[in-house]
Amino acid sequence: MLPHVAETLIIFDCDGVLVDSEPIAARVISELLIEAGAPMDPRACELAFHGFTMAAVIEDVRARHSVLLDAAFLDECQRRTFAAMSRDLQPVEGVRDVLDGLAGPKCVASNGEPDKMRHSLGLTGLRDYFGDALFSAAQVARGKPHPDLFLHAAREMGVEPSQAVVVEDSLPGVQGARAAGMRVFGYAPGAGQDADRWRAEMHAAGANVFVCMADLPVMLRD
After folding, report:
1. What is the reported pTM?
2. Could you confirm whether domain 22-88 is CATH 1.10.150.240?
């Protein structure tokens, strides 16, 4: 059983857990890959790159399509993603109520770039829940699925890894949290074969899987 929520650090992933940004990012990456001669549709991008750093996306595209993406690709990806988020981004359904009910310490640990994280949380009005407790893979040697980011977040927040739990929606995130010695809750909404496979993979990696954000507070107290 976890300690009382007020004594436990809750580490949230950002994309797909706090903000519904994954479909937006996948659409932008798909557009850019088509232009670069490495065509992948948005759904394929979302499935292939879920939880990846942009460095990992670039390496995957090189291996998959033999296409080398440069700094201009990254700059354009950020520009288009910021513009699309400004139009379309919303908080994940139910997450504001969850955050309102958490009295204890909480922070964000994301494979995304710091500017993107601050931008998305600011757009959706979620930034105030976390203040400056925002941690990015850009701050550590290795992002998810390695434990570095979660260990960094716990250290900066002044808690032992055993006193932290993680809320994730990707397999790399679950793997990183487990490698850090933290309990992890895997958010996997949706229906169909892709969602079933997603839930099965996260469960096999050690996550306590849930499909509705409203269920998270009860799970944190069990």
Report:
1. 0.85
2. yes
